[in-house]
Every structure is written in structure tokens, then in C-alpha cells.
TrEMBL record:
Keywords: Phosphate transport, Transport. Transmembrane segments: none annotated. Belongs to the PstS family. It holds the Pfam family PBP_like_2. This is Phosphate-binding protein. Gene3D superfamilies: Periplasmic binding protein-like II. It comes from Pyrodictium delaneyi. It comes from the Archaea. One of its GO terms (biological process) is phosphate ion transmembrane transport. One of its GO terms (molecular function) is phosphate ion binding. Residues 46-346 form the PBP domain. One of its GO terms (cellular component) is ATP-binding cassette (ABC) transporter complex. InterPro entries: ABC_phos-bd_PstS (IPR005673), PBP_domain (IPR024370), Phosphate-bind_PstS (IPR050962). PANTHER family: PHOSPHATE-BINDING PROTEIN PSTS.
């Protein structure tokens, strides 16, 4: 049966209405889908956006950058910013409550720990090494052998030239190439945990250094008085100074030497062996059966990791970074975010370390897990 013109128009109108209804349903469904997919992924610390701020050690910054990137990818409602600035700045910022967490290569000195006993948690989160780097064009990337005493005498201003007999005796393979050029000694100018580790090594291996200079995050450098000392901020500042200054020597975290292609020395350990940094030689320095808890004083224990006698294969300038946080938090959202980040650092984070670091042994991973459990989230 053939449709009349009126019937045809009616059928077209009905079809149009049905199409518009279907389109409306589709648009509504699409909008609902967009709303669902654009919501933050729910996780154990809730839906609201939480921001955490940290500062401190430049020794740990390459590892911290890795951790923050991976952790926040899995927790899109948590934002973390870590500014570095040196261990001294990190501790000062935390005690002034300017940041939520701090990283410091040495733990709190005993006096500060006693003042805040039970209030601050401190625990190691990364193992690394301080390396002695140099720029000697005549020998290129050749790896020197150096002792703590020789390095101390360079920074004391007593060993002046690269062809000094004490250096040549340790390095017969390149002795004839060592130039009669003045050694430029580069050091940190800021309050630095890397400096504390380095000066601890010098004090343990050279009595003259121990008596005249001592140990600290910042010290008076005798070589500066000779005009052959240069101070720079941060591991990166020292690294750049070494790269741009022929005949210089300095100390930086191993990761920076690897990243910028600087040669570094084998150092003599207590067993008399010249050892280069490696994952194995760093870990060997941290053999500890019963570590302190996050509530304890770590100052004496941390000193034993430098120039460690734990193994004849231990690298003698091994270092670590401690994370410091207040135990009690009024803001429960921030507290739970911090707890999740600490748990990540002690587990998956140890598998996400850049070159130049070694993972925590199981005993120290347990200390990190214990710290997360000790956080008291109020609010």
C-alpha cells in the first residue's frame, strides 16, 4: 500500500523524534561516562587532594625524585614536592615546621634527639656512597688509589701537587703521568650531610684532621687559607666545579659522578683493600643484625657505617640518608598520605633506585615499615 504525502511526513516526524530521543540518551550516557572516568582513582588515603612538602639532603635527591614520580602516579590525589637544600636545611625546616618531612644523611645529633625524644621518627631510607672525584686531563678516566690520610692532607693544604710522592706511590701505573700542577680542593659551602660523612672518614683515617678540623656538616677548611680551596652549594655545585676546573678534586654522592661521567677513586678500607663503590661494597658496610627503632638515637650507629669494619669488602665512604618526620599529626589526611609514602619507600621504592644507590637490607626495611606504623594520625 502506498503512503500519502501526509502519512509520509508523519512517518518522518516520528523517526526524527525517535532519533532525537536516542541521541539524548546517548549524550547523557556519554556525559555519565566522562564523569566517572575523570574522577580521581580511589586509594587507601581517600579522595581529597593532599600536598606534602619535604626538604634536605641532596645526596638522596635523585632517588627521591624517582620515588615521588612513581608513588604519585599510583596516588593521583597526593602531591609531593622535595626541594633539597642540604641536610642542615632539612632538619632546620622540619624543626621549624616549615615542611612535612626532612631528609638528612646523618641522623639527629644526640642532643637534638634527646630534646625531641618520642616526638620525631628517624630511619634510613637509602644507601649510597660518597666518592672522591677529580679532573686530571693527563690521566683521563684512570681510577686512582687514594687513602683517607692522603685526601686529608690535600684538604689540610699540606699536599699541594698532583705528582706528590704520596700520590705517586699509591698509583704506580700512572705515576709518570701525574702532573706537577697545584691541586684545587672543592668542598661543600652549605650545611651538608655529605660533608659530615666525608669528614667522618677523614677523622677516622687521619689523626691530624681529627685534632685540627674534626667532623661536621660544615667545617673550616684549611686549604681555603692557601687560596686553593673552592666552596660550592650542593652535590651538583661540586660536580659542576670539578667538571669545569682542571686539576681539581672533590667529593660528591656516587649518583652524581655516574650521571656526569666523572672518574672516582678506589679508597682504602680498614682491611687495607682499595675498594671502588658498587652495590655489593656499599651493602657490605651496613651489615647490622639489631638496628635501632625509629624512636631511638642513631647517631653512634651511623658513624660505624663510615670506614666500616663489617666486611673486608666494604666501601669505606658508604653513606645513608635518614627520613625525619614528626610522630603525631593533627591533619589525618596528610598523616595517612605520609604513611603511604613511607610504606612505599620501604618496599617498592627500594626496587626503584637510580644508579649510584644500594637497596636497604631486610633488617632496615623492617625499620621503615615500623616507622609507618608509629605515625599517629589525629584530626
Amino acid at each position: 500500500m502506498r503512503c500519502t504525502g501526509m502519512e509520509t511526513r508523519m512517518i518522518a516526524v516520528v523517526a526524527l523524534i525517535i532519533s532525537l530521543v536516542a541521541l539524548g540518551i546517548s549524550l547523557k550516557a556519554l556525559n555519565q561516562y566522562k564523569e566517572l572516568t575523570q574522577r580521581p582513582v580511589a586509594n587507601s588515603v581517600g579522595e581529597e587532594t593532599v600536598s606534602l612538602l619535604g626538604s634536605g639532603s641532596t645526596f638522596v635527591k635523585p632517588a627521591m625524585d624517582n620515588w615521588i614520580e612513581e608513588f604519585t602516579r599510583g596516588h593521583p590525589n597526593i602531591e609531593i614536592e622535595y626541594t633539597g637544600g642540604g641536610s642542615g636545611k632539612g632538619v632546620s625546616d622540619l624543626l621549624s615546621r616549615l615542611v612535612d618531612f626532612a631528609a638528612s644523611d646523618p641522623p639527629l645529633p644526640r642532643s637534638k634527639w634527646q630534646k625531641h625524644q618520642g616526638e620525631i621518627l628517624q630511619f634510613p631510607v637509602a644507601l649510597g656512597a660518597v666518592v672522591v672525584v677529580y679532573n686530571i686531563p693527563e690521566i683521563g678516566d684512570a681510577q686512582l688509589n687514594l687513602t683517607g690520610e692522603v685526601i686529608a692532607k690535600i684538604y689540610l693544604g699540606e699536599i699541594i701537587y698532583w705528582d706528590d710522592p704520596a700520590i705517586k706511590q699509591l698509583n704506580p701505573a700512572v705515576a709518570d703521568k701525574l702532573p706537577h700542577r697545584e691541586i684545587i680542593a672543592v668542598h661543600r659551602s652549605d650545611s651538608s650531610g655529605t660533608t659530615q660523612i666525608f669528614t667522618t672518614f677523614l677523622a677516622k683515617t687521619c689523626s691530624e684532621w681529627r685534632e685540627k678540623v674534626g667532623v661536621g656538616k660544615s667545617v673550616e677548611w684549611p686549604v681555603d687559607k692557601t687560596g686553593r680551596g673552592i666552596g660550592q652549594e650542593g652535590n651538583q655545585g661540586v660536580t659542576q666545579a670539578i667538571k669545569s676546573t682542571p686539576y681539581s678534586i672533590g667529593y660528591v654522592e656516587w649518583a652524581y659522578a655516574l650521571e656526569y661521567g666523572l672518574p672516582y677513586a678506589r679508597l682504602q678500607n680498614p682491611a687495607g683493600k682499595f675498594v671502588a663503590p658498587s652495590t655489593e661494597s656499599i651493602s657490605a658496610a651496613f651489615a647490622i643484625d639489631n638496628p635501632p627503632s625509629p624512636l631511638d638515637d642513631w647517631s653512634d650507629v651511623a658513624k660505624e657505617f663510615v670506614y666500616s669494619s663489617a666486611s673486608p669488602d666494604a666501601y669505606p665512604l658508604a653513606g645513608q640518608t635518614f627520613l625525619l618526620v614528626w610522630r603525631s599529626w593533627d591533619d589525618s589526611a596528610k598523616c595517612n598520605a605520609m604513611k603511604a609514602f613511607i610504606e612505599y619507600i620501604g618496599s617498592q621504592g627500594q626496587d626503584n633506585l637510580p644508579r649510584g644507590y644500594a637497596p636497604l637490607p631486610e633488617q632496615l626495611k623492617k625499620v621503615v615499615s615500623q616507622a609507618a606504623q608509629l605515625l599517629e594520625c589525629g584530626g
